[in-house]
Each structure stands twice: as structure tokens, then as C-alpha cells.
Amino acid sequence: MSQLRFACAAWVVACGLMVTAGAKDIALPPLSIAQQGYFFVGGKYSTANDRQVMTDQLYVEFLIPGKQTHPWPIVMVHGLGQTGTNFTGTADGREGWAHYFLRRGFPVYIVDVPGRGRAGFVPDQFNDVKAGVAQPNTQAVLRAWDS
Questions:
Q1: Does residue 144 carry a pLDDT above 50?
Q2: Are 86 and 78 in contact (CB under 8 A)?
Q3: Cβ-contact 80, 120 below 8 angstroms
Q4: What is the pTM of this model?
Q5: Which three-class secondary structure state does DSSP give residue 105?
Q6: Between the CA of residue 114 and those of 29, 34, 102, 143, what are the distances in Å?
Q7: Bridge partners of residue 135, in order along the sequence
Q8: 17 vs 11: CA distance, rounded Å
Q9: Taking 70 as the threshold, does the pLDDT of residue 8 lie above it?
Q10: Judging by beta carbons within 10 Å of its beta carbon (0-12, 13-18, 19+), is residue 64 exposed, middle or buried?
Q11: Which of 27, 49, 87, 105 has the fewest CB atoms within 10 Å, i.e. the most exposed one?
């Protein structure tokens, strides 16, 4: 019976490898991008170690297709401890969800929420509270939807 289970498991793994290998080999046409870039939203200046730094800003990357066929954009916001780069590609080199929707004519906006990924993070405020030289109310605000 264990030989049958091993054979079935080997067959499933082999099929999975064939499907994965085939998916990566599909030749896609070049992307047509009319405009791409990034911008920051919000934020405030704080003082950390006698220097002024920007904190609590939101980072947004945008991709506008060469031929836009949909009036409304796709806005991708990561969850948990992730970042917006999760939508731009896969670990094995395939295109991510951002390119999937871009190829179908949607403008795409990829967000990194404050304190995560490309939005930046200044740990000095937290380190100062831990060291006892600053009060806890000087820390950046953590939002329930952000963690």
C-alpha cells in the first residue's frame, strides 16, 4: 500500500512540475506601457536623533497601459506583513497580478502602506522609546488595517 501512495505522490509531483515548466515557457508579447512611475501620499515631518525625517507616508507605484480599455483602475493594497512588490512578479520569474491587469487594459496602482516596503520606515522613534529617552506617544501610529 505504501508503494502505491509513493507512486501516486510521485505522479502528482511530476504533473505539477510539467505544468509549472510549461507555464513559464509561454511567450508573452512585450508590454505596452504609456506611463509608469511612483509618488508618495501624506506623511509628516518628525525629528529623530536631531534630524528631520519624513514618516507615515504612503508609496504608490503606477502603470498605465498603452491602450487603456477600462475607465477604472485596479488598486492593489497588500495585507499582513507583505509589500506591494508581491503584485509585480513571482519568485520563479513570471509576471505578477499587476502585469496581468495591465495587459488587459487596466491602469494599475500598487500601494505600500506607511511603514512597509518602499514607503520607508524610520526606526529611531521606536528605538528612542525603548531606550527611555522618548514617550510612547512619539511613535508612528499603527493602524488596524496595516498590520
A1: no
A2: yes
A3: no
A4: 0.69
A5: coil
A6: 35, 28, 25, 9
A7: none
A8: 10
A9: no
A10: middle
A11: 27
